[in-house]
Amino acid sequence: MDNIFSALIHKRDGGVIREFVLWCILCFETLLFMIVAIIAGSKITWIMLMVFTIGLAVLTAFRLTAVALLYSVGVFHLLTLTIHYICYRTSGSVMDLFLFVLLILLALAALICSFVHNLSRYDLDKVVMILVITDSVFIMILQILLYVGRRSVYGYLSGWMGISTDFRGYWLGIISFWILLAVIDLYYIFFVLGLIDNRWRKIIKKVRVPKAPAVRGVPAAIQGIRGKCAGQMVYIDDGGSVIGSDRSAGATLVLPDVHISRWHCAVRYDPGRSGNGFYEIFDRSMNGVYLDNGSRLPQNVWNRLPRGSVICIGGMEQRFRLL
Fold first, then answer.
1. 221-322 belongs to which CATH class?
2. Distance of alpha carbon 88 from its chain centroid, rounded?
3. Which residue of 58, 180, 216, 290 is surrounded by the most CB atoms within 10 Å?
4. 47-73: per-residue pLDDT in tens?
5. CA 323 to CA 306: how far, in whole Å?
6. What residue ranges do the domains of the chain occupy?
7. Which residue from 286, 72, 297 is spatially nearest to 200, judged by alpha carbons?
């Protein structure tokens, strides 16, 4: 299974390093929330935040990016809404009611857009990113206003963060909470801008491979010359075939290998108008598709290769010849 440690070993690029740094911060955050819970007398707020951070750290460790993003929106905003509901019930002023309703609207909008993005054909990742960042900034501003407010400052703080009025562990907890907000926002920004691996932009997504012209009289096939399919002949369907490690993700040729993505690449054959056929490779993987000389094919475009070319999937171990 793909995880942050194997990715660091086999692909030490900027995206993996960013993921690892965020994961390390989440681990440090877990320790901070544990310390705050002990100092503040095991308040439920800090315990809930610690459990949430552990869950997010596990998801990021296994590089389940889309699931981690949906989890951070759903669970974290549900958690903050619960805390703000305690705050609202404690204070009960008109201004608090307005702020509480505004937080509900922002959180619900982010949650709904996140579900629509992940479970439909609509791409709303940028909208979710903007909503999450806006909500995070607003929460930070709200905390500052509650702290410097003139009315019932101690009541606000004891209700909002679930701590006693002697402020035991308050600032350490607040700083930890703000760091957690920053990590979630950075995770969204990195994902949307492609600064971390975002090839699986949705949890459920049907991959559509453009169909190649029908093969007439020419058997299109690839031959394994090294790796798990060595010596085997795999024929290419008229509409193209998908190579990957997970059949449920749409792979027609399944290669169970840690370096092979669930949907790694698509291969199709075009006989050409003059009869000089050629193959086309579409790569959308993390570890790439390489030629025999070690050069990597460009991603997210169809790469035309002549018959007889040798390609390597996810490294140099899984090698195929285009017949």
1. mainly beta
2. 33
3. 180
4. 888 999 999 999 999 888 888 888 888
5. 9
6. 4-192, 221-322
7. 286
